[in-house]
Amino acid sequence: SQQGEEDPQALSIQEGENATMNCSYKTSINNLQWYRQNSGRGLVHLILIRSNEREKHSGRLRVTLDTSKKSSSLLITASRAADTASYFCATGGNNRLAFGKGNQVVVIP
Amino acid sequence: GAGVSQTPSNKVTEKGKYVELRCDPISGHTALYWYRQSLGQGPEFLIYFQGTGAADDSGLPNDRFFAVRPEGSVSTLKIQRTERGDSAVYLCASSPVGTNTDTQYFGPGTRLTVL
Questions:
Q1: Which of B44, B50, B100 sits opposite A31 (nearest CB)?
Q2: Chain centroid to CA A101
């Protein structure tokens, strides 16, 4: 079964706006990762946040992790048309990743 | 350097046939993973190799699915007696060591269609 569950599942925004996605999970984790997928093919790793971290930044990305609520959020600031993709959170444990269903983000130029 | 590559990129087969999907991991990565992604869903774990051995094959759906990695590099996912429900994108990933905090690097996937 998949641990991560993203919310909302589809988001349409104007270029330049911020996009926020949430993810919840059910069991204890070692880390949580966010991936991007274009056109339903290869996944690109965006950022990893460890269970003892609360916030992490990478360029225009900001990830938060609340282990007490078993939830994470991904914020993309100043979105661009190229950010149009599906975004997945995945929890790491037992040497495998458990993915959620994903968020579809459409950035309108 | 080169990333993870997968061949073929697309495979169309008929119900009941046998297929092989190949994965070339990043050179030097000891861990290799196979996932399956159905339309509108996130990837689901199938099997994990550490070196030549399958360290965890608990995600394989049934005994029609089998994977090998004989020399600890290239891996082949084999599906016997394919069914229409096997249609999906099969993703391969590799990571340097295989710990829980390793980043997994994904290939572009093989889209399998069973008619």
A1: B100
A2: 11
Spatial CA neighbour of A101 closest among A23, A47, A43, A49: A23
One-character DSSP codes across A63-99? EEEETTTTEEEEEE-S--GGG-EEEEEEEEETTEEEE
Compute φ and ψ for B72, nearest 5 degrees.
Answer: 75, 15
d(CA B63, CA B1): 36
Residue A62: Cβ within 10 Å count: 17
Q: Is B100 touching A (CB cutoff 8 A)? A: yes
3-state helix, strand, coil in chain A (%, to 5): 5, 60, 40
CB of B3 within 8 A of CB of B105?
Answer: yes
Contacts with A42 from chain B: Cβ below 8 Å: 91, 106-109
CB contact under 8 A, A43 and B55: no
Closest-approach residue (CA) in chain A for B40: A101
The pLDDT tens digits of the residues spanning B49-71 come to 999 998 899 999 999 999 999 99
- Taking only the tens place, the pLDDT of each residue in A43-58 is 999 999 999 999 999 9
| CB contacts < 8 A (A, B) | 69
Cβ distance B48 to A100 less than 8 Å, yes or no, reads no
| Pairwise CA distance, residues A6 & A10, whole Å | 10
Please indicate if any CB of chain A lies within 8 Å of the CB of B56. Answer: yes
- For B45, phi then psi, to 5°, come to -65, 135
